[in-house]
Structure formats: C-alpha cells, structure tokens
Amino acid sequence: MIPFFRKIINEKRINKSILSHWKSIDIQPKDRIVFFAHFDEKNEIKPYVIYYLQRIFELDCNIVFISTVEKLPVIEIEKIKPFCISIISKKNIGLDFGSWKTGMHLFNKSLSNYKSIIFANDSCFAPAFDLEPIFEDFKNNLNQISGITFSHESHRKPHLQSYFLWINNTSNNIKFITDFFSKVKFLKNKRKIIKKYEVGFTQKAISKSIKINQWVNNTEFENDYNLKNQNHTIENAALLLLKRKSPFIKCAIFKDANYKEAQNSILNYLNNNNLELYNIIAKQYPNQN
Questions:
Q1: Where are the domains positioned within the chain?
Q2: Which residues of 269-282 are buried (b: 16+ CB within 10 A; e: fewer)?
Q3: H/E element holding 129?
Q4: What is the mean pLDDT of each run of 10 residues along the chain (289 residues)?
Q5: What is 3-215's CATH topology?
Q6: Which of 40, 77, 123, 260 is surrounded by the fewest CB atoms within 10 Å?
Q7: Report field, pTM of the whole predicted structure over 0.70
C-alpha cells in the first residue's frame, strides 16, 4: 500500500477507535515517553497499576496511558492523572499493540523530544525493586532495542517479550518503530497478534540489523538451570526474580493454583524486601498468602 494512503486509513481507523482522551495542559520535558497499555474486566485501574505508574513516573518519564476499558469511570481516571500526560480510552480491539499504535499516532510529532520510547502494559506486578539499574543499562545501549526477557519457545520464533520494551531515540530506531506501528492492524485474534506483532517486532528489528538487548541473558539462564522450551516469566517466575533480578512479576502466576510454590517464594521475598507491593498483591489475592 502506498504510504500516503496507509497514513490516511490509519488515521481514520485510530480516530474511530478512540472513545475519550484527556491530555494534560502542563506537559513537562522528560527524557522518556512511556506508552502504557491497560485493560480491566471490572473497569478499574487497580492499585498495582497505580503503583507501577508512579514508579515509572519517578524515573523521568512522561506516561501515555491507553485503556481498552471502553467506559473508564472518571473516578478511575482521576487516580492516575498525577502520573500521566495523557489518558486514552479506546475500543477493545487490537490488544496491547493496538493500544500502542494509538498512542504512537497521537504523539508521533513529539517522539523526537524524547531520548527513549518505552512500551509497557499492566500484565505485571512491578517493580519488585528499583528500575534505575535497568534504565541505566538500556539507555546506554543506544542502537539497540531492549527488553527484560527473551522467549525461545519451540513453537514460536525467538523474540523479546513485549510487556516491557525500550527503544532509544536514534534515527534508525525511530524509523523502524514508526514504520512498524503504521502497519499494525486492530486484529482480534490473540494468537495472530502474538505471532504477527510480538514475535514480529523482534524478527523485523533483526532483519533491519537492529541489535537486541535483554536484561536477563536467556542463554545463560537456561544453561544455569537446565531450562528449555519454557515461558520463563510464568514457569520460572521465582527464579527470574530471586536469581536474575528481574523486577517484573507476571500477574497470571497468581491466577493459577499450579504455581503455588512460586507464589509463596515471590510473596516471601516481597514481604522481606518490598512490603508495599506485597500488601498490594496480598489484598488483590487474599487466598494466596
């Protein structure tokens, strides 16, 4: 498709999907912009999300919050206004990549003002500890795209897992993500979205000779603990937290009774090292502690 026509079609589709948009009138210059994707079945912005936003905000970030809660209550929006420059409610289509596409479209002209662009979502209890060492590492890898964990499961091509992605503002990187998101469609099938966009993001970056940086060295991690063909963020969550200093804990672990041992290890660590996050999780899942 000719880029001009793709741009026009994109704008129409995105604008049609947006249901409400609050934007701060006092946007201060920051080093980083974060596009944060959110969804909640109960139309809430839960305490763990607010905690996460606050911690990101404190690290020189402007946050664009994109929710696919189609009727996000005003009382919920007010909870996060202190930490966000923009709060968008859109139709529940496209999952995270659809939300990030929307944020990118609305702030495309502002990207050059930031040293780094971050894509994050609400799938994790985070951070379990200070994010600053990760931010320092990622910002120093100028020509790379960075993430926390790398998936090497046999049924999918290797890729950075998309719950936290960091792109430094170089001409090649910005050109890549702008072009990538211009081609993202509001798909409904989760498996197609994972294959085409989560996996595709890394594979496309590699094809463009962009290097991939990961906080947790996947090869070392798998060799050290004899782990193969697993989603480590779920199946080895406690190891990632305790042994590899990954401060992101997947919420899905606490929804599955099969991970009781991991739940106990994680909660025990947090009880001793991050009481605020421990209390948030314990209140959300009272039967787990």
A1: 3-215
A2: bbeeebeebbebbb
A3: none
A4: 64 90 95 98 98 98 98 97 98 96 95 97 98 96 92 84 97 94 93 95 95 93 88 94 96 94 97 98 84
A5: Spore Coat Polysaccharide Biosynthesis Protein SpsA; Chain A (3.90.550)
A6: 260
A7: yes
